[in-house]
Design a protein that fits this description.
Chains A, B: Its cofactor is Zn(2+). The structure is a homodimer. The first copy, chain A, is of the alpha/beta class. Chain A is 31% helix and 27% strand.
Chain lengths: 340, 340
Amino acid sequence: MRAVIMHAPGDVRVEDVEKPVIEEPTDAVLRVTMSCVCGSDLWPYRGYGEQNGPAPMGHEYIGVVEAVGDEVKNIAVGDFVVGSFVASDNTCEICAAGFQSRCVHQVMMGGIGTQAEYARVPLADGTLVKVDGEPTDAQARSLLAASDVLGTGWFAAVAAEAGPGKTVAVVGDGAVGLMAILAAKHLGAERIVAMSRHADRQALARRFGATDIVEERGDEGVAKIKELTGGLGAHSSVEAVGTQESMMQAIQSTRPGGHVGYVGVSHDVSLDGRELFISTVSLLGGPAPVRRFLPDLVDLIMSGEIDPGAVFDLTLPIEQAAEGYKAMDERRATKVLLTF
Amino acid sequence: MRAVIMHAPGDVRVEDVEKPVIEEPTDAVLRVTMSCVCGSDLWPYRGYGEQNGPAPMGHEYIGVVEAVGDEVKNIAVGDFVVGSFVASDNTCEICAAGFQSRCVHQVMMGGIGTQAEYARVPLADGTLVKVDGEPTDAQARSLLAASDVLGTGWFAAVAAEAGPGKTVAVVGDGAVGLMAILAAKHLGAERIVAMSRHADRQALARRFGATDIVEERGDEGVAKIKELTGGLGAHSSVEAVGTQESMMQAIQSTRPGGHVGYVGVSHDVSLDGRELFISTVSLLGGPAPVRRFLPDLVDLIMSGEIDPGAVFDLTLPIEQAAEGYKAMDERRATKVLLTF
């Protein structure tokens, strides 16, 4: 089968690899119908972190079940399914508390690679959510978004306690930040401030529910948020980048007693204890437990209430995956969808 | 009047100073009947932070109202009152959200000094809580504890979401840690683990509700908490020290999806973004909004439901304040009460 392999920073290729098979009785194998490139895929693409030779890429996916192991009960061959970027049993104490991304049996799908024609999904019963009916192309695109960026943005908005009467500041105008805007709107936030300086992303932000745009960054961005909120700061801030500047921008934009939801994969971030102490804000973040939200997100998508698939602004056949990475790296695309 | 003044690290004196007067129409002046020495007073005593010449000390107090400004409506001369270590209007948007320690008009009582025969209390209507009836000596001691250590420990336990069915790990066996144990017990926690290696504090911890004692620290302490919780970590952790080791011990002792309440005044702490991200725990801390809890704490104390005054294990007349600081510095006393 064809699969995307990263050989080194900037070196993404599409190659023939072995088609996956059932390895554990709790596995499923999917025929992937759509996958995509994640902002977090850009970190190794740009040379951050360890690189250990050729690596399969991708952790977002929707598809049709092709085979299941003997112990799989909830999912059957032929089902159309969506799963998150972390395979989880969905039954352990951590999963039961809603933190499936830290399941005691977790398997990171990124290590398996879903930018491929087929993918093995461990813990299929816990990981996969069946979609009833036949999704349209637009619905399929939205379901794919639910696999990570929508679910991650949703978690960030929930962690930030976005809701009625709240002003929500969103730091980061990538796909996750945009999805957090959509989530905040759905959760009933009164005012949603997108921190963005790119016209195309500002337009998407407004489409998804942003009421205000702030172009300033760092201290100036914080000052602007304060100005918009009577000097107090936002009730809720979403951090969807993962840098020192973006984390501090989110924390400092939040009023005392407010909440920060941070989901940008953290790179070279160090938080000063005294500054955090004085800020008196709640912090919750990390790898998002997308599985917690998936059933509801599937319902919202299939009933047409939300349209997160609009975040994909470039669609390419898998053979052109390298161009997809390049377009996102150069910010020519917000989020690239790969077809098969 | 007599007041405690710190001239330099280790140099605490009791001196004659001007008796305070009403400066603002929202002020009250109290005759302080009891004050005490706080763990946070030990930081400057030990030479941490800036020292700018002689400074009045103390921010915990109970007493009788001696005078009120023209705009004070809720508090009258002769009232027996308790207030927190932060004067707050209790009406601004931040106060209304329960974060009075970050009131937009906040005044730190530590800058005024309450280890003194009299103290000016700004924003008296917002800051002070009247105690009905005549407190016994034991009740008065408990009310004094409510002024900071009890209220701070309570906030830490609430921030850590201590409650029924929860295992709570408490890092720090000083007065605040001990009060967090009392709070966790009152909040219904199932299991309360005191991390302490001092026999006298272990005994107090058990008295206040600890079900388990862990003597190990750092990685070994974390391993012990994991061992006690089926490998998962505590649901809730309280940090009541303020060092790098104690913060990491609290964060790492907490399971994914769990909550850390941190109230130790942060000194030279730096949190690694990646480690925090992976931990997937909620963090909430800072200067405790004691005023939020004071009315309930006063009721619990006056009805005999809680006995936090037991945390004071050394009582001295104010003239011996220097000995009180020394005893706490040398860990011969957990918490020193000063009488007048």
